[in-house]
User: What shape does this take?
Amino acid sequence: MASALKNLSDFGGVEIPNGSDMKIGIAVAQWNKEITEALLKGAKDTLLKHNVKEENIITVSVPGTFELTLGAQNLLEYTDVDAVIVLGCVIQGDTRHFDFICDGVTQGVTELNIKYNQPVIFGVLTTNNLQQALDRCGGALGNKGDEAAVTALQMVDLHNKMRDSYLSSYENL
Ligand code: DLZ
Assistant: This one.
């Protein structure tokens, strides 16, 4: 869990799949806009760098991190995206609200992965303070948006390979 030891934008040694045939949805929260806009830029730049076409990146905006689950579900239900990335930033305050929002979105995103059998990638920063968030949206520790984008490419690639090998095993019968 110690992301202070890892730069979120460093993928040294990892093979990153080509996204030229992929369509990716992004749901982004408006709360802590300064941070989430930087996460969105990181995610989009990384997808474009790995050949996802601009017109194949569909972005929707939701009020807060708690609404990311439904934003992602709408993308899965009403578009033909291969994966969804959710981007948000929850910063610890004086009350337990932080815990409820984090628990809600974690549970929601986990359920969507299973319900739709499609990748829904967790690009939510959950930090103790603003500085930790700034460090992780393009600052000293990289950008969680980059990490989420690479994860989406890897998971779509895995999904496609598994589906294709399953289908070809039937063709050979
Ligand atoms: C209400 C709230 C609070 C206190 N803090 C955050 C936050 O740090 N990050 C975030 O993305 N959203 C926050 N919200 C808004 C909730 O996610 C949600 O939009 C509202 O509770 C309405 O459902």
In short: Residues 29, 31-32, 63-67, 88-91, 93, 97, 101 surround DLZ (CB under 6 Å). The longest strand covers residues 83-91. The beta strands are 24-29, 57-62, 83-91, 120-127, 137-139, 142-143. Residues 29 and 62 are 5 Å apart (CA to CA).
